[in-house]
Amino acid sequence: MNLLDKFAPQRALQESLSEMGGVAPIATPMDRIESATTATIGGRRMILAGTNNYLGLTYNEACRAAAVEAIGSQGTGTTGSRMASGNYAGHRALERALADAVGWPSCIVFSTGYQTNLGVISALADSGDYLLVDADSHASIHDGCKLSNATTIRFRHNDPENLERRLARLGPDAHRALIVVESVYSTLGDRAPLREIVEIKKRYGAWLLVDEAHSFGVYGERGLGVCEEMGLLDDVDFIVGTFSKSLGGVGGFCIGRHSELELLRFVSRPYIFTASSSPPSIASTREALRQVLAGHELRARLWRHAERLYAETAAFGYRLGTTVPAPVAALVFEDRAQALALWQGLLDAGVYTNLMIPPATPAGLSLVRISLSAAHTDEDVTQIISALEHARRTVFDFA
Amino acid sequence: MTAPSLANIEAAIRDALGAIRPGAVGLAGDADLMQEADLDSIGVMDLVMEIEDRLDLSIPVETLAQARTIDGLRAGIHQLSGGHK
Questions:
Q1: Dihedral sign (CA A110, A115, A116, A120)
Q2: Sheet containing strand A32-33, strands side by side
Q3: Distance from the Cα of residue A260 to its chain's centroid
Q4: Chain B residue closest to A163 (CA)?
Q5: Is B3 helix (H, G, I), strand (E, B) or coil?
Q6: What number of helices (H) and strands (E) belong to chain A?
Q7: Is there a contact between A169 and B58 (Cβ–Cβ < 8 Å)?
Q8: What are the extents of the domains in chain A?
Q9: Is the dihedral of CA A121, A123, A125, A127 positive or negative?
Q10: Residue A228 contacts by C-beta under 8 Å, 6 or more apart in sequence?
Q11: Predicted ipTM?
């Protein structure tokens, strides 16, 4: 067996995808992006209902103008790490704005959301420390654990009692344990039982990091996420998030209630050994953050869409990943072919969604993931719902 | 806490395997779980969580990252729990 033979399964997958013809359901080629909610795919105009553009800010006029101005005044890239020549005023101002938004002393900005979890988790927890992570966590969390020298223990998804048993076994070492959860899980759209997790964390003297990647900008009075909405900001130690969803850029952040977070800059390899975010990305994100904090109308529109989609989809007989409305609706299938048929049916009706299949999904489920945006119009949502209704009659037998 | 015996560990592994893959309970100790029980890397980690509950023992992800058989899991867990033959 040689070096490349192990890729045989991926070769087979690639070939089966190309044999399907038509528009590929994975790594779907976007011919031309037209707006936050529309693109040309396979030569046809589609409504985009498979992005993470929850507030639609990628095409916001002020965000675009900020990015263009930053290219003019600072250039296209920094060509350096934050620890070398890439530590611009904009990066520091964005960190200050994020920390101030939560009222905590420290924030570090990373070059991508993936690197944020890699950089924060691997640096916070070292030899002798423990990472207790939800089993269904995003790959960036699991990979952050791999990069860390700490001992990683997984607990059952959204199961506080299962977490508590693992903390109890640690005894006094629970004080050296960092619990890592996501406030909203991106595949099924379900929320973590944060109140119970906070209670356990306090009782055992452990630490808590909450990933608000899919909730920042969307939940809470000021859009700070689920922790804000639930009134738990005083009980959480670290919040991580990304610029590449509601903020419409590329990058990520960690906000900490402990000033020691600042010291991670000296030890976090994914922070040190990479170029800092480009000036246009930082500039558009700063403007997007301003809009998020005052974005009540954007959030109201997004939630109106979400509640409508959940109500109608459930009425059609689809099985949803969660019954609590969220900006993401996962239609769940045991059978991969059914999920693919729905994905294709929606595409034929002019609606692009995400097909998600194992091993990228929990419990071996196949999903069609629909995501909404404040930039969707009521007519867009009507078209998405009509496509789902049509697919119910033509693809499935639960009409 | 008394360390579980090798026999107890194997019973827990087979019981846990039965919960995830009912057809795989009787697999040979050296059978490749990924191929014979159709478990991917996430499946093996889910199996480990089931075993943890049965033995009341936390098993770090790193400890068993390379274990691919029932015998391999048994040996890794036995060593972890401080057990002796």
A1: negative
A2: A32-33, A38-41, A44-48, A351-352
A3: 26
A4: B58
A5: coil
A6: 13, 14
A7: yes
A8: 18-48+296-394, 61-293
A9: positive
A10: A219, A220, A221, A222
A11: 0.85
Answer yes or no: do A358 and B41 touch at CB < 8 A.
no
pLDDT in tens, A165-203: 999 999 999 999 999 999 999 888 899 999 999 999 999
CB contact under 8 A, A152 and B60: yes
- The two beta strands, A177-182 and A207-211, are parallel
Sign of CA dihedral A277, A283, A284, A286: positive
Does a structural domain hold residue B85? no
CA-nearest residue to B57 within chain A is: A169
pLDDT tens, residue by residue, A75-103: 999 999 999 999 999 999 999 999 999 99
**Which sign, positive or negative, has the C-alpha torsion A161, A163, A169, A170?**
negative
B18 Cα to chain A: minimum distance (Å): 16
H helices of A171-230, where? 194-204, 226-229
pTM for the full predicted model:
0.94
Cβ-based contacts of A162 with chain B (< 8 Å) = 49, 53
In chain B, residues with a C-beta closer than 8 Å to the C-beta of A166 are 52, 58
**Highest CATH level, class, for A61-293:** alpha beta
Residue of B42, B58, B62 lying closest to A359 (CB–CB): B42
User: How many angstroms separate the CA atoms of A201 and A203, rounded?
Assistant: 6
Q: Using one digit for the tens of pLDDT, what is the confidence trace for A129-157?
A: 999 999 999 999 999 999 999 999 999 99
Q: What is the CATH number of domain A18-48+296-394?
A: 3.90.1150.10
